[in-house]
Amino acid sequence: MRFFTSALFFSLFKVAFSAAVETKVTKAVTIDVVNAQLAPDGFERSTIVANGQFPGPAITAVKGQTLQVTVNNKLTDASMRRSTALNLDGIFFHTADVYEEAEPFVNACPIAPEDSYTYTVPLGSQAGTFWYHSELSVQYVDGFRGPLIIYDPEDPHRSLYDVDDESTIVQLADWWQNSTLPLMSVYEATGVVPICDSG
Fold it and tell me: Which of 48, 63, 121, 157 is at a distance of 20 to 30 A from 191, taking alpha carbons?
């Protein structure tokens, strides 16, 4: 009887804990892709960023959810590419959702200015730390990138983390003080890869 009571308590505790950790089946996120004058390295320039910040805000989800990311293209700077596309880098795609991988001009069209698109991606059993970024040419170099974290509520190493939240995300990146269109023109004309100004 004692074993049964303990097993019942453990089962109820696990269900309650899972319910507390689990979130909705679909995780909806909205990203407004905008131009902003920012100075990540102290040199101000026009950028392309998610929700007005660099790096972009963390997208978080839980293993087993379906991630829905609505991208609103609000780019206006005519000196930069004004179309865009989102890539959830590292996420496994299947035949049924291959169009959500957003390879511009390959399996999807870029998102035109003043337009929106909602990417719907089942996460399945995948968990871990990834990143999202623009998939249109080298636009991510202008700043459209950020972290993508898929948590596993049953992570066997969970007890080893002192802190596991957005405050512990570390991102490293190269940075150029010119936008990508002039850099790309030089590269195409000379074949010389531009050296980053900082990073």
Answer: 48
